[in-house]
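Re: weekly structure request thread

Next one in the queue (183 aa):
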Amino acid sequence: MKRFLFISIFSILTLACTGAQQRTSQAAAELSFSFTRLSGSASNQFAVWVEDSQGRYMKTLYATRYTATGGWKRRETSIPVWVKKSGLANLTNSQIDAVTGATPRTGELTYTWDGTDLNGTAVPSGDYFLILEGTLRWENQVLYRAPIRFGRGAAAAEVSVEYTGEAGNDRNMIKDVKARTLR
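Done, posted below.
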């Protein structure tokens, strides 16, 4: 009887862990957009990150290397919302390296969130935002917010956009932003 009870408890724990792993590996959200590299200085910087429904920072999916590796100190207008939200000033070099890359070439870009937080822990089902901030040129900024629902009834809603400054033609740096949940 004791052996059977041990096997049953072990089986239940194994199934529970497997279910959690499946949820984490199957739950994902994706943010895609068209990126056009601008010529000239003080442009082409962007970051993609996740916030919970209360606006609390969860995880960075990507940030341009220039800003993340110190450019934010030389040019305070370079993706300032992400710099503040991510706590960039307190991150280690390895944490920064994990989310940065060279500024991409012109084309379609996609960033995927695996449903985990900064520590790699699966987040609970609920409402989140995929955020995309871009520095178009100097103080001209764009901020996209894509609401998504994770877990039961997973869905993505319309992406909102807010511009700061006189962006003019530079608004074409980031366009056609779309969000979707993946199962």
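Residues 2-26 form the longest helix (25 residues). Helices lie at 2-26, 65-74, 80-86, 93-97.
Next request, please.
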